[in-house]
Amino acid sequence: MSAERPLAEYCEQAASWDADRSAQADRSERIAWRVALAACICVVILSGALLALIPLKRVEPYVIRVDSRTGVVEVVPAYTGGEDFNQAIARYFLMRYISVCERFDYPMARADYRQCGAFNSAPLNQALYTRWNPANPRSPLNVHRDGSTVSVRIESVSFLGAALGGGHLAQVRFERITRQPGGARERFGHWIATVQYGFGPPARAMQLRRWNPLGFEVTALELEPEVLGSAGGTGG
Fold first, then answer.
1. What is the pTM of this model?
2. H-helix or E-strand containing 125?
3. What is the pLDDT confidence band of residue 230, given thresholds at 50, 70 and 90?
C-alpha cells in the first residue's frame, strides 16, 4: 500500500499538470484570436479612413495666362461640369451678344445688326438704331467706310449676382482688334462690358427666335476701356 500511494499521488499531480497545460493553451488561443480580431477591426477602420481621405489628397492643375500686351495675369479656370445650367446658358449668350454687337465686317453688318437687336430690350434697340443711323458720323457704317474691320476676342465672363430692380449682372472682358485694309498694323483695345440681363418669352418672329430661342434679353449695357488696355477700336 505504501508503494501504491506515492504512485497515485504522482499520477494525480501529472493529470493536474496536464489539465493546467491544456487550460493555459486554451487561454492563450482565445487571447490570440481576440488580438487577431482586434487587429482585423483596426485594419478595416484604417482602410475606411484612408478611403475617406482619398478625395482630399489630389493635385489640382491650373493654367496661368499672361497677356503679352498688357501684362495682365489671369488664372484660367478649368470647367469641371459642375456649373449651374442656367449660368452656363447665360455665359454662352453673353459671349455671343458681345461678339456679335461689338464686331464689324461690312458683308455681315446687316445680319449682325439684326442679331444684336434680337437680344436687346426696346430702349437698347432704340440706342442701337441711333448709333447705326447713317446720319450719325460715328456710325460704324461711316467709321469703317474705308474697309477696316473689327473682330472681338472674349477674355472672361464674371457673374456679379442680382441687379437692383431685377435681373442679373455680369462683366465681360473682351478685346477689340481693328484691322485696316491692305495689311496695315492692327490696333488692339481692351474693354469691359457690364451687362444687366434676364430671360423672358422668346420672340414670335422665327428669324429672331433662330438667334435667340430662349428669350435672353439685355436690359442695360455699359462699356468702358480697361484700365491697363488702350481704348482702341470703334468706341461704343
1. 0.63
2. helix 122-132
3. very low
Alpha-carbon span 73 to 6, nearest angstrom: 101
Residue whose grid cell is 453673353:
94
146-175 pLDDT per residue, tens: 999 999 999 999 998 887 777 899 999 999
Burial class (CB in 10 A: 0-12, 13-18, 19+), 183: exposed
Neighbours of 35 (CB within 10 A): 10
Determine the average pLDDT of the residues in 76-103: 79
| Residues paired with residue 175 on neighbouring β-strands, in sequence order | 153, 190
User: Please, what sign has the CA dihedral across residues 64, 68, 73, 74?
Assistant: negative
All 3 cell numbers of residue 47?
482602410
191: β partners: 174, 225
CB 103 within 8 A of CB 152: yes
d(CA 114, CA 110): 6
DSSP SS3 for 66: strand
Q: How far apart are the first and last CA of the chain?
A: 130
Q: What is the pLDDT of residues 12-35, one digit of tens each?
A: 666 666 666 777 777 878 888 888
